Amino acid sequence: MSGTTTMLFQRAVIVGVGLLGGSLGLALRERKLAGQIVGWGRSRASLQAALDLQAVDCVETELSTACAGADLVVVCTPVELIVPQVLQCLSAMSPEGLVTDVGSTKQTICAALAETASKNFCGSHPLAGSDKSGVCHASAELFVGRLTVVTPSGQTSPELCQRTEKLWQALGCRTLRMSPDEHDRGVACTSHVPHVVAAALASSTPAELLPLAASGWCDTTRVAAGSVELWRQILMDNRLPVLEALERFSTSLHPWIKALRCGDAQQLEQLLQAGKQQRDSVGN
Description:
By secondary structure, the protein is of the alpha/beta class. It has twelve helices and eight strands. It has three domains: about 10-180, Rossmann fold; about 185-250, 6-phosphogluconate dehydrogenase C-terminal like domain (6-phosphogluconate dehydrogenase C-terminal fold, Orthogonal Bundle); about 255-284, no CATH class. Strand 4 (about 70-75), helix 4 and strand 5 form a beta-alpha-beta unit. The two termini are about 20 Å apart. The relative contact order is 0.11. The mean pLDDT is about 95.
């Protein structure tokens, strides 16, 4: 763990205490970055689980009450809820407070908040998570060494963007600044299409063959176990970039089909080598 111990916030509010929200609370506590950590949610059971895990100090079911006087709010709810929740938080929190989110899509969210919330809101997306959900799977180390993309709009001040980067860096992340549009086009290729492909592979495998599914199938389809509702929202919000990336992926399969149809071992070796080289360049 980093030796960071400087308190950055007096009252931090986590809107949605699932895997990411719970991990954020644990990391804020372990690194002593916030004087008080408040969790908001609709499920009493999830809020109690967050308390039991000590991911938060106290909980609220009224968003305006939770955000009263807060100088940090991180919205960790599904993408369709983020804009209205940010606006509601702003009406109650400190006028100088920072609001960010962990949404997997950014263009729609940042555009909707650019005019009304640019003084306080800067979008972000930590590239961390799991096919598991719920605060019971939270970890204070979830963000360590991971990349968080910070996505200021044209109205976001440099100072607010820097404060957002400082938050994620204090949690152990590396940060990268991108425009919301650049972010969405990028993650369409690296996150959203892989989820579609995993789900398509899982659903197209005949049930009678599932006893043969070993590590290759399980590793490739792991992300398909994620929340259906969460991913429906992500794919619909980023529909056009995902469609473009999926069409490119579909085209990239043509050489594989041709090589297999023709029995071209040399071409298969070249295709496999190209994939291995790209994967090896990323590491673990």
